[in-house]
Protein 1
Amino acid sequence: MRLVPILILATALALGAEEHPAQPAKAKAPAHAADMPNSPGAALTELGAGNARFVAGKRVRTLDTGHDAAMRAALTGGQAPFAVVITCSDSRVPDALLFDQEAGRLFTIREAGNAPDTQGIASVEYAVEHLGSKLVVLMGHSSCGAVKAVREAHGQPLPGNLWSLQAGMAGLLESTPQAPNEDAKAHGARLEEANARRQAQAMLDRSTLLRDLTVAGKLWVVPAVYNLASGKVQFFKPISVMPAPQAHH
């Protein structure tokens, strides 16, 4: 009979465990979740360092899968990406990987030919004004099909809605003509770089908000080109903007 009290006690403990199951440990925030660059220069340095890791085959942030659950949990409360990346829709340009940045750190806008339309520019303004992004990288890439299509059209309308590629790159061919004895590949490479520079400048020309922040030194807009073969991103100088002249009364 001495076994009866013991059995009753064991049953009670089991029932209590069902009513109050063990609470899982709270997810720990990723160790690198709070180290966002706080200036345009620091943001550009971080992207450069991430790209160097990608080229060397030593990615860190995008291989840290052990913190995925904690990262998702932390990001449900909001986002504060330190940089905006405007790049081509090309599947060979994985911006998060080639800059080795995990979710929540880059605000990405992708359009064929990296030519942002009005909605794309509005998205940049949102990231900068409301999310605190310090850097905008307008990144073209080698062997860009969109640039090639515009080049080979020779001014003739492309079919369907592809005409919008030509509209987005209006003036590119005229500003960067093919040089004598220059082959198509070399000319295409020059067009890809020229397009990145022109799109960066055009975006600033079309956005008073971005232009004012650039004049104040709070934002950098940087053209860049990604090389598919080497994995390297070549950054160019930030676009400089002159303050608007003050009106005389």
Protein 2
Amino acid sequence: MRRGATWAAILLAFAATFRRPIGALPAPQRPDEASVIRLVDAAVQKRVEHVLGFTDVEHYAVFRGKDETHPAAEMTVKVTYKKGVGKSYEVLSQSGSAIVQHFGLRPLLDNEKNVNLPGNVERSWFNSANYEMKLKTVGVQRIDGRDCYVLDVTAKHKAPNMIDGEVWVNAGDGNIVKLDGIASKSPSAFAGTTHMMRQYVEIEGYPMATHARAESNSALFGRTVVVIDYGQYDLEMAPAK
């Protein structure tokens, strides 16, 4: 081969190496379904063992009908969770319709308190004890900069914060990244069938909710959308062994 042709071949190969878009990485090898489920179960157990409690600030906004610009009611609460105790709430501010607050937001908070009581909270963990899980064949999807496996999930029992739908989990550690589906039980008097979406971020290596949206339609109340934003987390961790 002539020298010029040799250099041309090298340059073409070099250029082909960099045709991949910036930030794109080879997808991890797709494991079998059982391996992914074990990874998810291990991630849940690790969080249970290491996160003893937390506080955060949650902002709730309720929208009615087609208007998702002007909330019918809003509420900001400080949440305290203690392992073995449950959740408590301090209302920091509230505005808008007193009816929506009383019949919509207060029941949501009461339901969250109930499902997080000892003896109840274990039944809402995202693991194979509480969900039927099937690994989807779509391969790895990138969500918020994280390579994720996608699971079809079906709740084994009914609770307002459990879904039938899809869940994205971090391919590296099994932590939940996003869920999207239908609530297995109506969370409040406002809700008929409720579509739920929740996103998570990792704080100190553990998944914590950052944004959620629930939409329901009922003959009595019509279309209702509840948007929740979570922030200002402070985690209490188990002592290092």
